[in-house]
Amino acid sequence: MNTVMAIQKVADEVVIEKLMEIFRSVGYDGASMTELAAATGVKKGSLYHRYPGGKQAMAYAVLDHIADLNNSAMIKVFFSSEPADDRLSMALRSIYDFYDGGKLACVLRALSHGADAGLFRNQIAAIFQNCVNGFMHLAADFGHDMNTSIRLAESTMTRIQGSLILAQTFQKPDLFQATLNEVRVEFHKRI
Amino acid sequence: MNTVMAIQKVADEVVIEKLMEIFRSVGYDGASMTELAAATGVKKGSLYHRYPGGKQAMAYAVLDHIADLNNSAMIKVFFSSEPADDRLSMALRSIYDFYDGGKLACVLRALSHGADAGLFRNQIAAIFQNCVNGFMHLAADFGHDMNTSIRLAESTMTRIQGSLILAQTFQKPDLFQATLNEVRVEFHKRI
DNA sequence: GTCTATAGCTAGATAGAC
DNA sequence: GTCTATCTAGCTATAGAC
After folding, report:
1. CA–CA separation, B26 and B28 (whole Å)
2. What does each of the 191 residues of chain B score in pLDDT, given as a tens digit?
3. Where do the domains of chain B lie?
4. CATH code of domain A63-188
5. Residue A160: CA atoms inside 13 Å, Cβ hemisphere, count?
6. How far apart are the first and last CA of chain B?
7. Closest partner residue to B166 among A30, A158, A182, by Cβ?
8. Of the candidates A28, A38, A98, which has an alpha carbon nearest to the alpha carbon of residue A58?
9. CA distance B106 to B104
C-alpha cells in the first residue's frame, strides 16, 4: 500500500485511561461525548472513528482494559512462588494504588448505575469474580479451609467496595486504608 | 378563602416513593423528567409546580425523606428500652426490608454519582453518619469499648454497602443476607 | 485517522389555559 | 394544582472534506 494514513495523535491507551477517569468521576450517563472528547484530546468525530459503537463501545473498552489490568495483577497472586503473605501485600498494595488510597471511586461501580447499566453487568461481574477467585486461592494458601476461604474472599471484596463508598462520602480516605488493614488481619487469623 | 384549589391527584408521599424508586434504579443522570413524570403519574408541568427547583429539588426531597425514615428507625435503636440484642435485630431487619433482601440498590449510592453528585454529598454523608452513630451506641450497649464500637459501626456500614454492590452485580441477594448475619455475629463477639 | 459542521432528537425547564 | 404545548440547550451520532 502506498496510501498514507493520518497519524494517530493520542495513543489508544492514553484515551482509555482518560475515558476511565471521566466515567469514574461522573458515571456513564453523566459523561457526555463533548466532555469525553475534551478529556481525551480527541475530537468527537475521531472518537467515533475509534469506537464506532459510540459511548457504549467506549465503556466496553474501558471495562476490557480493567479486566486486563486485573488479570495481570491476579496472575501474580495466583502463580507467583513468593510466600502467601507477600502476595497478599502485593494484591492489597495494587488495590490501594488503583484507588489512589481511597480518593478515587470505583469505575465498576460508576458503570453499574444508569439507564443502560444492564449492558455492563456481565463484564463487571466477571472482574469481581476474578478478584474473588484470587482472594479465595490466596486464603487457601494461608491455610484456611474452603468454606472459610470463599467467605473471606467475598467479605474482602465487600469491604473494599463498601469502604470506598464511605471513604468518598465522608471524604476520609483513611477509612479505605483502615479496611485494607482489617482485611489483612482477617487473612492471618488462625483457623 | 373561597378559592377552590384544584385537587392534588397523587399524594406527595406517593410521588416521593416513586421518585426514589426511579433514582435508585437508574441514578440521577439516568432519570429523565419524562420518566419521572410517567412513574409518578404526575405530568411534567405539575411536577415542576411541586418542585420548582426541578430535578435537583426532587433529589433533595428524596434524600430528606430517607433522612426522616432513617431518623425514625434510629430513634428506636437509640431510645428504646428493649434489650440491645433485640434492637440490633430490629435495625438489621429494617435495613433488610429497605433493600428488599438485597435485591434493591441503595438510593444514596445511586445519587452519589454523576455530574452534580457533589450537591448531594452532604445530605448523604449526614444519613450515613446517623447510621454509624446508631450502630456505635448499639455496640457500646453490647459492652464494647469506644474504639471497638466506632470501628464496628463503620465496618457495619461498610459491609452493608459493599454487600449490596456484590449482591446486585452477581444477582445473588444471599450475599447481602449473609453479610447481615456476619454483622450480627461481630456484635456478639466478646471483648 | 484527523477534523468541522450539522443532522435529529431528547433533555430539563417554562408559559399559560383551565 | 392540573394539564398541554413549547422553548432552548445539550445530547448522541453522522457526513464528508482533508
Report:
1. 7
2. 445 668 999 999 999 999 999 999 999 999 999 999 999 999 999 999 999 999 999 999 999 999 999 999 999 988 899 999 999 999 999 999 999 999 999 999 999 998 899 999 999 999 999 999 999 999 999 999 999 999 999 999 999 999 999 999 999 999 999 999 999 999 999 76
3. 63-188
4. 1.10.357.10
5. 29
6. 65
7. A158
8. A28
9. 7
User: How many C-beta atoms lie closer than 10 Å to residue B82's C-beta?
Assistant: 11
Please state, in angstroms and rounded to a whole number, the distance separating the CA atoms of residues B62 and B40: 13
The CA distance from B29 to B117, in Å, is 9
Distance CA B73, CA B65 (A): 13
Which residues 17 to 76 of B reach strand D, CB within 7 A? 42-46, 48-50
CB proximity B35–strand C (7 Å threshold): yes
Count the helices and strands in chain A (H runs, E runs). 9, 0
Q: Which of B183, B84, B64 is nearest to B130 (CA)?
A: B64
> Distance (Å, rounded) from C-alpha B127 to C-alpha B149?
18
Q: Does the beta-carbon distance from B158 to A154 stay under 8 Å? A: no
A60 touches strand D (CB under 7 A): no
Q: Which amino acid, residue B32? A: S
Which of B30, B108, B159 is closest, CB to CB, to A162? B159
Give this prediction's pTM: 0.96
Beta-carbon contacts of residue A171 (< 8 Å; ≥ 6 apart): none
What is the rounded average pLDDT for all residues in chain A? 95
Set of cell numbers at residue A23:
466515567
Residues B92 and B96: their CA atoms lie apart, in Å, by 6
What is the DSSP-derived secondary structure letter of residue A118? G
